[in-house]
Amino acid sequence: MALLDQKVVLITGAKGGLGNFVTGAFLEAGATVAGVSRSIQASDFPNQRFVAMPAELSTGEAARQLADEVAAKFQRIDVLVHLVGGFAGGKPVHETDDATLDRMLDMNLKSAFFMARAVLPHMRKQGAGRIIAIGSRAAVEASPGAGLYAASKAALVSLIRTIAAENKDRNISANAILPGTMDTPVNRKSDPLADFSKWVQPGQVANLTVTLALDGLSEVSGAVIPVYGAEL
Hints:
Largest sheet: 7 strands, parallel
CATH superfamily: NAD(P)-binding Rossmann-like Domain
Strand order of the largest sheet: 3-2-1-4-5-6-7
Structural class: alpha/beta
Shape: globular
Oligomer: single chain
Strand content: 15-25%
Number of domains: 1
């Protein structure tokens, strides 16, 4: 039997540099995957256990509707994998504008809060669940020129650890993965002179995400797991 057979996994940001690897890994592990992004289509992952759910997660109501739709369709939500996030930076804090603050909080904190708040009632009702969020190494290490990005990712870590503490009585785990720079096409384009061999392979992050979703690791909760590749 596959590792995640009969498990329903909701993946936000399911299509993209990391999303492609994570979605593929969960499908390979036997899970039923509801994949969410703005432009996702069934043809992106030709698998009978994959359901494309185009959605915009900029509001709490949108997140609630999405979670309710998945729960109604599959009668449960076993795992939330939240991959949505983004980067903006390049300036010191004293030169950073309000728009960048809003953007970083929206992308890296609010979207995670909206989705966790939306799925938790379903997980608490069923008495089990796994929540896994992708943070960043910047959450725990100073990154000049990216202060608001780092702050938003640090807030995400705090949110995940709080969720773990609040839901441990319902067999719900919540963990955060903190990758270093990942070897994706977007990152290669933004830094073409970098040594890509030192970057984190997305497949490694995807494998860890699947592992954290297993029932056999239900007691691993509130963890903040670094994945730095060769850039230790």
